[in-house]
Design goal:
This protein is α/β, with parallel strands linked by helices. Helix content is 40%, strand content 22%. The chain has a single domain, classed as Class I glutamine amidotransferase (GATase) domain (Rossmann fold, 3-Layer(aba) Sandwich). The chain is globular and about 50 Å long.
């Protein structure tokens, strides 16, 4: 078989990626690339930023060469309806016109859901800050290839304030937890099929801890945490979860999607 060709769509702006670097973290797209290089070393990967018009035009003219597309996480918010957000939505709609297999993580899920006619909102039950506890597979989730070899109940890295409120019409719910009903969705739009997750199988807990420490003052100001001591207790919880989750177990969803592309 020929080499798998992937397109990774960076969710963050250049300015926000500077903040990620300041936190000691690589960009969302580079993090995906590092994981895929490990899981599928001979894969060919291109990265694009939807805000770059020239780059988008060039990619869309050769979109057929890609076997799959990954939409990463982001600190952007769908409800802001900024020019940057609209560019991401329009790019997703362009992808739907092609016969593409899409892996959508967190912001990626929210943006594909919105582009497909669904709706997202600020999660009324609160945020996932670095970790999502007790995600439970539905009966459909247990049978879906996305979750092959995955435990039916698991805890995993996650970082989101928003959630899917109304999924696209033909969506299949694959997983939920107490915070977000739509932790995993499968749906098709046009010629594309989307495997979407509200959490981050591609991000290690150590990465999440770095982000929490970097954002701690802002999260206290937003009253997500009362004080620094509460943040430290939360980080301790994540440290414990880290010892219980191997990299192999954490990345099963991404590995299953890559295997799906090969078949």
């Amino acid at each position: 078989m020929n080499k798998i060709k992937l397109l990774i769509v960076e969710g963050n702006t250049k300015e926000e990626n500077i903040n990620f670097n300041n936190a000691g973290c690589v960009t969302q797209s580079q993090n995906f690339k590092l994981h895929i290089d490990n899981l599928l070393p001979d894969c060919e990967i291109d990265i694009i930023e939807p805000g770059n018009h020239e780059s988008v035009s060039k990619i869309l003219s050769s979109i057929k060469k890609y076997d799959g597309v990954i939409l990463t996480g982001s600190t952007l918010r769908v409800e802001n309806e900024s020019k940057e957000v609209k560019k991401h939505i329009e790019f997703a709609k362009k992808l739907f016109e092609c016969e593409k297999k899409i892996f959508a993580a967190c912001w990626g899920l929210q943006i594909t859901v919105t582009a497909a006619g669904g709706k997202c909102r600020l999660a009324p039950r609160g945020a996932h800050v670095g970790i999502a506890h007790d995600i439970q597979l539905t009966e459909n989730g247990k049978k879906h290839k996305l979750f092959s070899s995955k435990p039916h109940k698991f805890t995993t890295p996650a970082f989101n304030y928003d959630e899917v409120e109304i999924p696209p019409n033909n969506s299949v719910l694959l997983a939920s937890n107490k915070i977000n009903k739509f932790e995993a969705l499968y749906f098709t739009v046009g010629k594309s099929e989307i495997w979407g997750l509200q959490y981050h199988p591609e991000i290690p807990y150590d990465y999440m801890i770095k982000l929490i420490k970097y954002r701690s003052e802002a999260m206290i100001e937003k009253k997500i945490f009362k004080n620094q001591s509460e943040i430290e207790l939360h980080i301790n919880t994540i440290e414990k979860a880290k010892t219980e989750l191997s990299d192999e177990q954490r990345t099963i969803e991404l590995k299953n999607w890559l295997n799906y592309l090969k078949n």
